[in-house]
Write a structure and sequence with these properties.
CATH superfamily of the largest domain: P-loop containing nucleotide triphosphate hydrolases
Helix content: 40-55%
Largest sheet: 5 strands, parallel
Number of strands: 7
Shape: elongated
Radius of gyration: 30 Å
Strand content: 5-15%
Number of domains: 4
Oligomer: single chain
CATH topology of the largest domain: Rossmann fold
Number of helices: 19
Mean pLDDT: 89
CATH class of the largest domain: Alpha Beta
Low-confidence stretches: none
């Protein structure tokens, strides 16, 4: 059985949903196609937003022979066949899915033919090509980033798909639900629509029926690619920037992906890197929240997670302690260290025991003489750190 995504594959760029910054009238790819002139290119972006559709529409509109290969599935012999065909026909469009996974052997045999124009390469990838694609391939291609589809884009795709499903009746709230659940992935929306259609005896698709099939959004999850680390970066920057709403949003995405391990690991870093001395109790409280979440499991785990993420976002912030420690480590790497002062060595006779003095403080030298007067720690007057430093200044003045 053909799936809707294949049935509805556009043959003209005007029929591609979304990506108007590339396909709209007088935009880059639109003009290339209308001028019947194409160059090798790489299209990158999240799944289900139109990479294959654009490649297919370009090839059809130019009425040029084309072949579709997968960098992982197809062998070197398959690429050899395309090259031979290009040599005899004069020019061929080669569409390569997952191009970021293409090995060196395949790249090496393609490069000369991309260079001389026998092969026009259209690479498709979810990975950032500036990080993941061989520079030799990349330098021979124009790189175009595709944008996520909007909910309205997804609904337009659903409306187009309905014509291929006889006697379908789709409630408006069910369509809205599918579109939002898809999270910008049209392929996901069409697959869910098709499953809903064929699993209904009456062909009447209701919100209840769709929610029984799938209640989780189509998040773009790739543990080894930049999208995963972008999400963790966004979480940390939102907490560091004291935005509890954004922090909860990104934490919720990680929870819905089931990636609690990455969430807990990054929160542990944030507790000491960004909050630090301004709220030093946050570390133990985070550990307690993680233990509670692991003990109760989902869905209740979301309760301690939500609370600790909120607290971390609204906590005062300080990076003074880890910045100071990095400075000390950097001095060690540079060789800036000296002997431990005599008065604090293990066999010292001149050590002054602070607890024998008022406020448990007595002035004496602790730093190696080579670093005497060196200051690493520069406190902020923020939260708990500000209060602690006031006490410190009072007892040491």
């Amino acid at each position: 059985m053909e799936i809707l995504a294949n049935i509805l594959r556009p043959t003209k760029i005007e029929d591609v949903i979304g990506q108007q910054h590339l396909l709209g009238k007088n935009k880059i790819i639109y003009n290339l196609v209308k001028n019947k002139k194409l160059f090798s290119m790489i299209l990158y972006g999240n799944p289900g937003i139109g990479k294959t559709s654009i490649a297919n529409a370009i090839a059809c509109e130019l009425d040029c022979p084309y072949r579709f290969l997968n960098a992982v599935i197809n062998k070197k012999e398959d690429f050899d066949m395309v090259i031979n065909e290009a040599i005899f026909s004069g020019e061929i469009i080669l569409i390569v899915d997952e191009i970021h996974r293409m090995n060196k052997d395949k790249q090496d045999i393609l490069l000369p033919y991309i260079e001389n124009g026998k092969i026009i390469l259209i690479g498709l990838t979810t990975a950032n090509p500036y990080h993941k694609i061989n520079p030799a391939i990349r330098s021979r291609c124009q790189i175009f980033e595709l944008k996520s589809l909007t909910t309205d884009d997804i609904k337009l795709g659903i409306d187009k798909a309905k014509s291929s499903l006889p006697k379908i009746k789709l409630d408006d709230d069910a369509k809205e639900y599918i579109a939002k659940l898809a999270n910008g992935d049209l392929r996901f929306a069409l697959n869910l629509l098709e499953v809903s259609y064929y699993s209904s005896n009456s062909k009447h698709i209701t919100l209840k029926h769709v929610s029984e099939i799938n209640s989780k959004p189509a998040f773009f999850v790739d543990q080894n690619e930049t999208g995963h680390y972008d999400l963790l970066s966004a979480l940390q920057k939102s907490i560091r920037g004291s935005d509890p709403d954004a922090a909860l949003h990104y934490a919720a995405r990680l929870v819905e992906q089931g990636d609690l391990e990455s969430l807990f690991r990054r929160l542990s870093v944030i507790a000491y890197e960004d909050i630090g001395m301004a709220n030093p109790g946050i570390g133990p409280r985070l550990d307690a929240a993680i233990n509670a979440a692991e003990r109760v499991g989902m869905p209740e785990a979301r309760i301690p997670i939500g609370q600790i993420v909120t607290e971390m976002a609204i906590s005062p912030k300080s990076n003074t302690s880890h910045v100071a420690f990095d400075m000390a480590i950097n001095d060690i790497h540079k060789g800036d260290f000296g002997d431990v002062p005599d008065n604090i060595r293990i066999d010292t006779k001149t050590y002054k025991y602070p607890h024998d003095y008022p406020n448990a403080y007595v002035k004496q030298e602790y730093m190696p003489s080579k670093l005497k007067g060196k200051v690493y720690y520069r406190p902020k007057n923020n939260g708990v750190e500000g209060n602690l430093y006031k006490v410190y200044k009072e007892i040491t003045k």
